[in-house]
TrEMBL record:
Protein name, entry field: Acyl-CoA thioesterase
Origin species: Celeribacter indicus
Stretches assigned to the SGNH hydrolase-type esterase domain: 9-176
Pfam families xrefs: Lipase_GDSL_2
Tree of life domain: Bacteria
Length: 195
């Protein structure tokens, strides 16, 4: 019988499940999705609210404990909120991916959509980090954590229906949609970990 693959989800409040009951958060819902689709994997919540790519880099070595066979990396939202230079975020994410590669742990890299607060050049530079690094490190890639919500159309309706009152974090229904969209990529990640 194939072994159960432990998937560490290294991220920030979106991964951690900010503002939600534990069973409604991203990692719990992802576990439910994997179980329902007969994917033999255990999801480990390595999300820390407020974490930046630097925080993720500082935690990656102990996150990649011997039982971890695959990793989801979903960081960068807090870097953007703080206006951290894209070059710095790129460097930190590179360090995280190098750590995973050194331990032969396959990665699903999850991007973000940067707002226009710091101008178009900043946004383009930040958003380019994810496809670039995914290609460089041959990771699986999910372009934008929140795209399953933002792609639904009229933002005011989306915000009212799928986002918490803070206007940033998905509510329980929003998390369900994100997991439905990302689940197949995570299943692919688990397969990659078995190869």
């Amino acid at each position: 019988m194939a072994e159960t693959i432990t998937v560490a989800a290294l991220g920030d409040s979106l991964t951690q499940g900010y503002g939600l009951m534990r069973e409604e958060g991203f990692t719990a819902r992802l576990q439910d999705w994997l179980d329902a689709h007969d994917v033999d994997a255990t999801v480990l919540n390595a999300g820390v609210s407020g974490d930046t790519t630097a925080g993720g880099l500082s935690r990656v070595d102990w996150t990649l404990s011997p039982e971890v066979g695959a990793m989801i990396v979903a960081l960068g939202g807090n870097d953007v909120l703080r206006g951290i230079a894209p070059e710095t975020a790129r460097e930190n994410l590179t360090g995280i991916l190098e750590a995973a590669r050194a331990k032969d742990v396959p990665v699903l890299l999850v991007g973000i959509a940067a707002p226009n607060n710091y101008g178009a050049a900043y946004r383009e530079s930040f958003e380019a980090i994810y496809p670039d690094l995914s290609q460089e490190f041959d990771t699986l890639y999910f372009p934008n954590f929140l795209a399953p919500l933002t792609d639904l159309g009229e933002m005011s309706e989306v915000m009212a229906r799928y986002v918490q009152a803070d206007g940033i974090h998905p509510n329980a229904e929003g998390v369900k949609l994100i997991v439905e969209a990302m689940g197949p990529k995570v299943a692919e990640l688990v397969e990659r970990a078995r190869d």
